[in-house]
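Sorry to interrupt, but I need a hand with the structure work. Go ahead and set the record down below:
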Amino acid sequence: MRYALRMRLDSFLTGAATASSLGIYILYKDYMVAHESITQQAYRFSSFAKLVGVKEYVGLVICSGSGD
């Protein structure tokens, strides 16, 4: 009986480790695709800015929130 329970536990842990590894791999690939996409967008924008002649670009203006 112990052998059967041990085999079931081993099988479960093997499946859990496989699923965890697969999940980590998928998250890594998703991160790399997103990183490459953002890099390409930044490159396209910088190329456009050079073409237009923009010296500096401020993408975010932070307001103080005082209502002035």
Observations:
- Residues 24-55 form one domain.
- The helical segments are 2-52.
- Residues 8 and 33 are 38 Å apart (CA to CA).
